[in-house]
């Protein structure tokens, strides 16, 4: 049976990919996004003219708007992807993270609670609120430590991860206190099409194509678990359909790599995919920059639970997913141009200085 889903943050990277995946399943989408720097209507261009995708520009902190959407559109589920998510930005300016990730989630939960209580018993039983979070809430792992599981203690180390941890706790509390059928997912590093180029994968891809330095924090040995965005979207769909209210599900790609390994792998793929580039070998562009404050050494996700209980597992390998990602950026120069001439460049100038030239190393999150 087709559903109506209210997706918050549906013009962002994960959000737009999730919206596209759900439309392919013929689920109707109400898409609420405030369109900050990372929200981009070009991400939704393929849905232009689709009557079952309704976009509304707005803030999850606007309770009147959220309440009207819930009452007027009568969704069967809410998937909360609205978030500030860039660690470096949270270090530079934490307030927007507190406002969106904590206050915004609180306002959204309050309106959802009122809406859920008003539903007929059968619809109330079937309704779900999915809060999408990150592995960063668990803090940092040692080299030989076991991967994070759902019961791992929270130990966030950046304003971003602290704000997401707080929002996770709110979602959990609304289930245990009020009975709202909330679900929480904590995912590892996503990559794929339409990712804003401040994150590691797209920044490295685009810099390499242009022959710019490939900046890596510190010694490059920080470890991340990589997850292709379509696999993540499939997992989110599975949790909405099959997840048990009140529970948390960790979503990972079972693909741990150091940042240096990741960038070298990207460079090797670029060498193969654009062999005529004058920047081959692209790994010669790698440069090391000063480490960022509070940089977590290692994240790793144990996704055994979602596989055992709900039957989900990642389909893409690191190589196949990264190959698709690189090809998308090569095939979509207009999207890249629109990003690089907008808020993205303004942010880079403010962060790294207006006096620096275009070849100044640019740092990526994670």
Task: Write the CATH homologous superfamily of the domain at 4-192 and 226-251.
Answer: NAD(P)-binding Rossmann-like Domain
Cα separation of the termini: 39 Å
Q: In sequence order, what are the helices and strands, one letter per element?
A: EHEEHEHHHEHEEHEEHEEHEHHHH
Shape: globular
Beta-strand content: 15-25%
Query: The CATH topology of the domain at 4-192 and 226-251 is what?
Result: Rossmann fold
Strand order of the largest sheet: 3-2-1-4-5-6-10
Main beta-sheet strand count, sense and barrel state: 7 strands, parallel
Which short descriptors sum up this protein?
12 strands, alpha/beta, disordered C terminus, 3-stranded mixed sheet, 43% helix, Rossmann fold, 366 residues, single chain, 7-stranded parallel sheet
What topology does this entry show?
Layout: E1 4-8, H1 13-24, E2 28-33, E3 53-57, H2 63-73, E4 77-80, H3 87-92, H4 95-118, H5 121-126, E5 128-134, H6 159-178, E6 182-187, E7 189-191, H7 200-210, E8 214-217, E9 223-228, H8 229-242, E10 248-251, E11 256-258, H9 259-273, E12 286-289, H10 304-310, H11 318-331, H12 333-340, H13 343-352
Parallel strand pairs: 1-2, 1-4, 2-3, 4-5, 5-6, 6-10, 7-9, 8-12
Antiparallel strand pairs: 9-11
Helix pairs in contact: 1-8, 2-4, 4-6, 7-9, 9-11
């Amino acid at each position: 049976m087709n559903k109506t889903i209210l997706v918050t943050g549906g013009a962002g990277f994960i959000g737009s990919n999730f919206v596209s995946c759900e439309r392919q399943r013929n689920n109707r989408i109400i898409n609420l996004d405030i369109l900050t720097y990372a929200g981009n209507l070009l991400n939704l261009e393929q849905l232009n003219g689709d009557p079952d995708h309704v976009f509304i520009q707005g803030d999850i902190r606007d309770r009147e708007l959220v309440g009207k959407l819930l009452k007027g559109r009568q969704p069967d589920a809410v998937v909360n992807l609205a978030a500030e998510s860039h660690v470096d930005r949270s270090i530079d300016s934490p307030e927007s993270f507190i406002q969106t990730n904590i206050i915004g989630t609180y306002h959204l939960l309050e309106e959802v609670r009122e809406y859920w209580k008003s539903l007929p018993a059968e619809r109330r039983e079937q309704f779900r609120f999915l809060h999408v979070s990150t592995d960063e809430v668990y803090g940092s792992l040692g080299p030989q430590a076991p991967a994070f599981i759902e019961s791992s203690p929270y130990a966030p180390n950046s304003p971003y991860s602290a704000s997401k941890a707080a929002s996770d706790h709110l979602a959990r509390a609304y289930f245990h206190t009020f009975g709202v059928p909330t679900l929480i997912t904590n995912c590892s590093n996503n990559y794929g099409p339409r990712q804003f180029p401040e994150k590691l994968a797209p920044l490295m891809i685009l810099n390499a194509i242009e022959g710019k330095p490939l900046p890596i924090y510190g010694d490059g040995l920080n470890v991340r678990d990589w997850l292709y965005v379509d696999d993540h979207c499939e997992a989110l769909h599975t949790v909405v359909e099959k997840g048990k209210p009140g529970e948390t599900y960790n979503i990972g790609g079972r693909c741990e790599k150091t940042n240096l390994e990741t960038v070298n792998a990207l460079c090797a793929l670029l060498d193969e995919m654009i062999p005529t580039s004058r920047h081959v070998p692209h790994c010669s562009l790698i440069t090391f920059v000063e480490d960022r404050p509070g940089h977590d050494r290692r994240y790793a996700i144990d996704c055994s639970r979602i596989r055992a209980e709900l039957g989900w597992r990642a389909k893409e390998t690191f190589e196949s997913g990264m190959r698709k990602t690189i090809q998308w950026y090569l095939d979509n120069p207009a999207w890249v141009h629109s990003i690089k001439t907008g808020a993205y460049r303004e942010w880079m100038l403010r962060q790294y200085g207006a006096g620096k030239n275009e070849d100044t190393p640019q740092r990526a999150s994670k």
